[in-house]
Amino acid sequence: YGVKLAPVGEPDATAPTAPRNVSATPASDQGIDLSWSPAADPDTGIAGYKVFRDGVHVATVKGWSYSDASVAERRHYSYTVSAVNYHGVEGPRSTSKVSHICHENRY
What we know:
Blueprint: E1 20-28, E2 31-37, E3 46-53, E4 56-61, E5 65-68, E6 75-85, E7 97-101
Antiparallel strand pairs: 1-2, 2-5, 3-4, 3-6, 6-7
């Protein structure tokens, strides 16, 4: 992804596409790693991505991944991601991806 300046003139009203191929993988007892394929916006480009956990906005990132370290053990979480273009227009959310944090017995 590169930096692209928003053109001067009429605001871009066309929303970016939804990110695709969202993957949510348990990274530890209290962490989930997310990644996705980039969205597209031919007019202004993508400024960033909003990450939602169980429908609540938890982060805004510039790249195609996010590590969620604020999750609890033995819980299911549903994640979606949306793209925002350089005019601030947010696109549709991705399809949801569910991940489960398991607690490993350490004896």
